[in-house]
Amino acid sequence: MSIPNEALQKVLQEIGQKKAFAEQQLVIVRQQKVANSRESRMLQLTASEMESLPKETKVYEGVGKMFVCTPIPDVKKRITDESEKLKTELTNLNKKEDYLEKTYENSKASLEQVLGGRG
């Protein structure tokens, strides 16, 4: 079975674009995962430091260019909420990474199949 050169060129271009897009998105997702894990680690360190503080200690949170005195339970709640949000975000990033890896591999295999069948 022979495919006309123009059609073959169009198919190769589409598959190549899909592969390149998946590759770019994979890089972005992996960077987001690194940033997410860094943020998660900072929250863990903050939470562990707060556990060692006496109850009467004044805690300040940065708001813009100033600091606001915040009760310890409120800060702990915020840290917990942010940690949960980061876990959900990490789960979604893992799913996206799996999808993009499959797309990349399928595109790569399709390119090899088309080029292998031609030559």
From TrEMBL:
<dbReference type="GO" id="GO:0005737">
    <property type="term" value="C:cytoplasm"/>
</dbReference>
<keyword id="KW-0175">Coiled coil</keyword>
<dbReference type="GO" id="GO:0044183">
    <property type="term" value="F:protein folding chaperone"/>
</dbReference>
<dbReference type="InterPro" id="IPR002777">
    <property type="entry name" value="PFD_beta-like"/>
</dbReference>
<comment type="similarity">
    <text>Belongs to the prefoldin subunit beta family.</text>
</comment>
<feature type="coiled-coil region">
    <location>
        <begin position="76"/>
        <end position="103"/>
    </location>
</feature>
<dbReference type="InterPro" id="IPR009053">
    <property type="entry name" value="Prefoldin"/>
</dbReference>
<protein>
    <submittedName>
        <fullName>Prefoldin</fullName>
    </submittedName>
</protein>
<dbReference type="GO" id="GO:0016272">
    <property type="term" value="C:prefoldin complex"/>
</dbReference>
<dbReference type="Pfam" id="PF01920">
    <property type="entry name" value="Prefoldin_2"/>
</dbReference>
<dbReference type="GO" id="GO:0051082">
    <property type="term" value="F:unfolded protein binding"/>
</dbReference>
<keyword id="KW-0143">Chaperone</keyword>
